[in-house]
Amino acid sequence: MSNTGSRPSSFNLDSFSRRQREILTMVDEKGFATIDSLAIHFNVTPQTIRRDINHMCGHKLLQRHHGGASSSSSVQNVDYSTRKSIMSEEKKRIAEMVAEKIPDHASLFINLGTTTEEVAAALANHKNLRVITNNLNVAVSMSNNKECQVIVAGGMVRKGDKGITGEATMDFVRQFKVDIGIIGASGIDEEGTLFDYDYHEVQVTREIIKNSHHVFLVTDHTKFTRNAMVKINDLSKIDAIFTDKTPSKNFQALLKTKDVSLYVSEDKKK
């Protein structure tokens, strides 16, 4: 289904080239398209496609990712299999950085998201962890660690990403108070509000934030200023952000005013 209905009705697509309009349609229909696949389809160079994508990103019609672009819709996320492949190496580096900050013998909430799933994988050698999760992918990953106790929340299971949400999930989360809650987000606006697409998922995330002594937000840099519809919470409720690229100076200043620590995986490569 195309997401063009979410764009302002006054926006004039006639100002874009025919190829750019076709790229927009293809990305809307598929949710995500790689630069290489678009270059082959249009028989042009990858550099030409990158210029097209950058032009449309400048008008907030697309969201740029490493190796491709996705729809900028605020009401519908990219499908799970595509999200899994987007920024995959960056997510692994973020996860390794988070794992270094988590001590053995810690209790954790780990919620939904492809980056939180990478964190679970990065904790494979930690000892005596107690992990509470509403993500079946996380539960399977963490259960392979013999030194880890895994507790799975009840509720409705989403078919796409094996996430568990609903009233039963929220009630379950409220029964615990853990050392660290590890959460993701689909978007962060310039004022420091966290957003996601699914209202039921957001409700669970709010409970995880309330019932964690410390909250770690794990997110790649494409989520900064990205659109999403449902408010999770303000950044002031988060203790630390783990990401792959240094955000803008304005955003860094915002983090300081909200007393949020920033960890950047690209810094560790230098």
Write the layout of secondary structure elements.
Layout: H1 18-30, E1 32-34, H2 35-42, H3 46-58, E2 62-65, E3 68-71, H4 80-85, H5 88-101, E4 107-110, H6 114-122, E5 129-133, H7 136-143, E6 148-152, E7 156-157, E8 164-165, H8 167-173, E9 178-183, E10 187-188, E11 193-196, H9 199-210, E12 212-218, E13 230-234, E14 240-243, H10 249-257, E15 261-264, H11 265-268
Parallel strand pairs: 4-5, 4-9, 5-6, 9-12, 12-14, 14-15
Antiparallel strand pairs: 1-3, 2-3, 7-8, 10-11, 11-13
Helix pairs in contact: 2-3, 5-6, 6-7, 8-9
Question: Short description, anyone?
Answer:
The protein is α/β, with parallel strands linked by helices and 270 residues long. It is built from eleven helices and 15 strands.
Fold and architecture overview:
- With 270 residues, the chain is of the alpha/beta class.
- It has two domains: 4-73, Winged helix-like DNA-binding domain superfamily/Winged helix DNA-binding domain (Arc Repressor Mutant, subunit A), CATH 1.10.10.10; 87-268, Rossmann fold (3-Layer(aba) Sandwich).
- Helices cover 38% and strands 23% of the residues.
